[in-house]
Amino acid sequence: xxxxxxxxxxSATTLSQIILxxxxxxxxxxxxxxxxxxxxxxxxxxxxxxSRAIVVTAGIDNINFHHPVFMGNLATCSANLTYVSNSSxxxxxxxxxxxxxxxxxxxxxxxxxxxxxxxxxxxxxxVPPLLLQNDIEKAEFEAGxxxxxxxxxxxxxxxxxxx
Length: 163
Prior knowledge:
Oligomer: single chain
CATH superfamily: Hotdog Thioesterase
Shape: globular
CATH topology: Thiol Ester Dehydrase, Chain A
Helix content: 25-40%
Strand order of the largest sheet: 1-3-4-5-2
């Protein structure tokens, strides 16, 4: 049975929260792990919306911190699919921070998340293909296909601690 294709817009997801003192370091900026958690939640919701299945994080690539997120900023995380294969989905995620008093907004963090959809037996489950609607989505899909091929060509393994 062939699954009905879905658009990228159908599963695009946005989450926002104000960064509070318990999420920051002594410098008053958000901990990277707090921001990664927010990104993982947003990407997971995006993957679930597309697959309508339980999903698990399979990898995170190209994590980049571009600008700090300060205490009191409104952090807005956006996620959208870039590439879909049989059971896995690559999702581009970005966090923008808005200084609510100044009215300024900065791109603070970007990454690619890979999620796998699971069936009721916790085995990989086929996901719907993407229905690409414009040249930007087609270019992102092709770039995602290349990133997936690079990941498969250079698999990462666990290493032993030195000490």
